[in-house]
Amino acid sequence: MAETTLTAPPVKRIPKPTKPFIPDLVYFEPDALEYPKGQKIMEFVKARNIEYRMTTSHNRITNLPGETEQEKYRMAKRTLVVGLRKTLKFDQSKPSADYAIPISTGCMGHCHYCYLQTTLGSKPYIRVYVNTEDILGAAKGYIDEKTPEITTFEAACTSDPVGIEHITGTLQELITFMAGQEHGRLRFVTKFHHVGPLLNLNHNGHTRIRFSVNADYVIRQFEPATSRFEERIEAASKIAHAGYPLGFIIAPIIWYDGWEEGYAELLKRLSDSLPPEATKDLSFEMIQHRFTKTAKNVIQQRYPKTKLEMDIEKRKQKWGRWGQYKYVYPDEQQTALRQFITERIFDHFPEARIDYFT
Ligand code: SF4
């Protein structure tokens, strides 16, 4: 009788969970320590033996460690600055909401295409503001001004607030505040899955939490230091289960060899993974990739090996509201992307709503 050789089944590698962000260095404005949130962050820092320094202003951090510009940039992305928000005039936040509610600025993620690289200029470190009551007071003013119309606030215009929630707790305060506002609504988007502290809050359906998702190729190539796709989807299910209105932002939509398979697969994976309760009242937003000449230069310096395609010759020029041309896809490509992804969304989620394609 012939001997049978037993071969072990292939071992499936389970990737490690993405850990919550812990800064390497923290700066405090002295005034911040007079607020409970400032004190709480100081306790967090001391309990972990994180190096900290005092600074006169959260806008003037000049002595970050690092020999080269790239090293300084990497260090800045691991530096937290704790201060007070002085400007309480909110910026507009179209098309996602009426106003940007300023709770933090900067992000620990390393998405190659991220617009914060240019909008934050030489201040890529992460700033968090501890005077939340002042910020909520200003939000209340905006709500009252527009009542009985609804006023919406976007909390993720200049950062990814979920990525630092375990340090600040600010989203919990915002969600709870907005639950009591008949005419106020909150929304934010994230690429992080650390949503645990948000799950048991009384949100009253007034906060829409959206997850930023993309084709596997885009996530792997261009979104280092963020949570994996599966982690984001698992977090989305938890958020839906907790009764929050849920949404997805597909951004940036990128034209690459195989984009049709990539985006078809994305929608299929979403539909396979989401529990039925997550598919009710589901919103989608779609943003095609765009860049300015300034952004292209910065990206090439900071991520010199990036495969991000930024050939101006292949793009359509569009006047941007920041007083610079931005480069989007030519109309034909835009239409193909929009139509293809829209069809896939409605194939899998017939009850979903598409807020915009831009
Ligand atoms: S997670 Fe968002 S805010 Fe952070 S680097 Fe990536 S795109 Fe920018």
UniProtKB/TrEMBL annotation:
Keywords: Lyase. It comes from the Bacteria. CDD domains: Radical_SAM (cd01335). GO terms for molecular function: 4 iron, 4 sulfur cluster binding; DNA photolyase activity; S-adenosyl-L-methionine binding. InterPro entries: rSAM, SPL, SPL_Bacilli, SPL_firmicutes. This is Spore photoproduct lyase. GO terms for cellular component: endospore-forming forespore.
